[in-house]
Amino acid sequence: MQAVARVDLDNAVMGDRQAIRHLLADKHVASYHNLHVELLYAEMEDRLITAAVGQFPIEMQCKILTSHVHDANLKKEATIVIHESYKKIINVCKKDAIYFDVMLDSLRDDRVQQGKCLRNAIILGQLATEYLCDRKEEFQVLETIIQKDMQTRQIELDELIGEVQKSSRILKRSVRRR
Q1: d(Cα 41, Cα 80) in Å, to the nearest integer?
Q2: pLDDT in tens, the chain (178 residues)
Q3: What contacts 65, CB < 8 A, 6 or more positions away?
Q4: Is residue 160 part of a domain?
Q5: Global pTM?
Q6: What radius of gyration, in Å, describes the C-alpha atoms of the chain?
Q7: Closest CA to 64 of 50, 74, 52, 54
Q8: Is 61 among the domain residues?
Q9: What is the rounded CA–CA span in Å between residue 126 and residue 147?
């Protein structure tokens, strides 16, 4: 019963971990999509700014540099988000590795215990078989002795019956003569 509860608990833990992985992957995809949209927005802004008429060339260069800095900041934020997501995924994987190591050790110990149990059962079976063979041999010896003894008793009994009959005939003759 305990093993079944442990398996159910293990399955629930695995299901929860898979759900966490899926949520992290969905978060990663959503953050990537959000950053992509922000980059597109910044690019569109840059196009609007550069399309403006009547600006000085230095202003246009400043706006271009500003947009590049803004793009670089967005990329930096994206890498930070991706880095954090991967750190969480790696931590979950490390916990899974620890969990599976514990499970493998448990299975290994269980295998050893079952092997010992099986070996002891085989030894007990062998001892029981040897004991049975010894009892069969003793039974056969005793059976042979008893049969010989019964034959001897039957012969003695037949002789005794013969003597009793002979004695009774002699007694009948003696009683008639008197």
Answers
A1: 20
A2: 566 677 777 777 788 788 888 888 888 888 888 888 888 888 887 777 666 555 667 777 888 889 899 999 999 999 999 999 999 988 888 888 888 888 889 889 999 999 999 999 999 999 999 999 999 999 999 999 999 999 999 999 999 999 999 988 888 887 766 5
A3: none
A4: no
A5: 0.38
A6: 51
A7: 50
A8: yes
A9: 31
Number of domains in the chain: 1
The CA distance from 82 to 90, in Å, is 12
Q: What whole-number distance in Å separates Cα of residue 11 and Cα of residue 105?
A: 18
Q: Please name the amino acid found at residue 140.
A: Q
Asked whether residue 152 is domain-assigned, the answer is no
Q: Please tell me the distance from the alpha carbon of residue 36 to that of residue 45, in angstroms, as a whole number.
A: 14
pLDDT tens-digit map of 94-130: 888 888 888 889 889 999 999 999 999 999 999 999 9
Residue 94 lies in a domain: yes
Domain range for 96: 2-136
Residue 59, both tokens: 């202003």
The values of phi and psi at residue 56, to 5°, are -75, 150
